[in-house]
Amino acid sequence: MRRLKAASAVTMAAVAALALSACGGGSGSNGTNSGTDQNGSSNDVKSMAVGKAENASAGTFKLGDAPAWDGPVTVGIDDAYSAYNNQTPDTNTSYNYYVITSVLAGSDVLDGNNKVLLNNDVLDSWDVTSTSPYTVTYKIKPGVKWSDGAPWNCKDFYLGWLSGSGKVKDFNAASTTGYSLINDAKCVDDQTFVTTYSQPYVDYKGLFDSAQLLPAHILEQQTGIPDITKVTPTSDPAVLKKAGDFWTNQWKGFKKELMPASGPYMITAFDQNQGAVTLEKNPNWIGAKGGPKKIVVRSFSDTKAMATALQNGEIQVAASTQPDATAATTLKGLAAQGVIYGSAPQLTYEHLDMNYKNDILKDLPARKAFFQAINRQEIADKLLKEVQSDVKPMGSLIFQSNDNGYQDLYGSKAGLGAAEAKKTLEADGWTLGSDGIYQKNGKRFSVTISHNNNPRRDQTVELVISQAKAAGIEVKNDNDPTFLSGGRVSTGNWDIALFAWSQAPFKSQSQPLYETANKATGAGNQNWQNLSDPKVDQAFAQAVVATDEATAIKHYQEADAALADDYASLPLFSLPSMWAFQGIDKVYMQSYNGALWNAGEWAKRG
In this entry, which stretches build a coiled coil (predicted)? Predict the structure, then answer.
């Protein structure tokens, strides 16, 4: 599933793993300056992207053995945890994931190289056991338990399907991609879960990840449902409502009795006012028992404060997804005190979404003129060049620049200058007013860009305001701290939205962002800009059923090109990553799951 990348501040003391390459110095594992790689990291950072017991050739991951130590390790992130269930529209952010990645076990693990691996701590296999009909069978290891002692088994997978299927309206799922294609899901026994699809789905390894597998036994206890596997989309509506209401509404914040762990750590405390979550070892974790016994995850609304906290030893890991030049310089300057700095590619891109319900932006010429007026290279150079010397605007909404199939579709559409934008508007009947702003049918070309409380985004909008003004377009800045975390973005109550999407390495996860929304089927659940283009819908529909990569890429390219021709969303740039740590042997900021993806392997250093 695609996730929102919010951010609280810009002058961050660290940033996550992401797209291209950052510039600058770093420190070796002993804290001395020992040279840099192409990302400006310490020389040893690349090796930290692989788990200690990972078997890349077999495609499996297990937590590796490491000494157990008390800690606590305090990890700084740039926005607060808010929910145990990260799968609803109002909770679907990366910052919840950064906590629950070590709390909830799932079918897969993504290493620092974004390699998709079977979570061999809890699963024996995930195999396509039939191609007609397309069937995937999951074999669950016996003896896996939740932290409250209940078995972690097929019931949890079944609830994961039921909640994400889109077939039960009471489950308010942020996305149904993949799950909606499963016609039949059944538990053959406690350790065997079988899913039968209506069509081939080669991205099945992206399903049933840790965020999807919530405790079925808790839902049963709290709703009085004896066995969730007996509940189907055609069951008694009253039963479905009970299950859906609990799943949607009761797994927010933290309630110990409702929120056990199936991963190596469990949440033991949550201070909402301080934005702090305390994690301690799950006594029933089936895998390796090492790593720090306690981890505290703190949010920092001010990036300078995070940098200072790392410098003063108040935190041991600074892990942010928001690159900042000042922060990068600060982090690199801490090498003498043993701080290791890292930067790496990240699967996150910043973009501007056009709202098709806006009276102005619903017209193609207006969107086209806006794109033409925006100089993305100027924005990237002024805000990110210190972090990544060769930063470039992004040319795709579906492909990263190093992906097979990537094409620059926006270089010929955006940044063409004020004169071209004016020509486009005037050809569509707009006239320049005495105030320097174009108007048509009594309406001025005035739009607002909305975003969360993030100084870099404020700076982005200020640059856009200047560029658009030269083209006779008025842009206003709407800095709303709750725009992402409060769910306003999902309501469509905005003209232009500025935020970032974070995605796992599965192209099918772009589908719910851009296909025509349909509440009845759950299609387009994350299409908050009200875009509807049959060419986009058809291309995605063909891509997700493709059984070979070449065919899938062809159709994803068709969807990408149609979106570009719609001038629907303007990709700005992939966000280069930064992170820093001290007192620990190795930390790697995984671009989708954050720094805690292998926290059970962290060993004490120094």
Answer: none
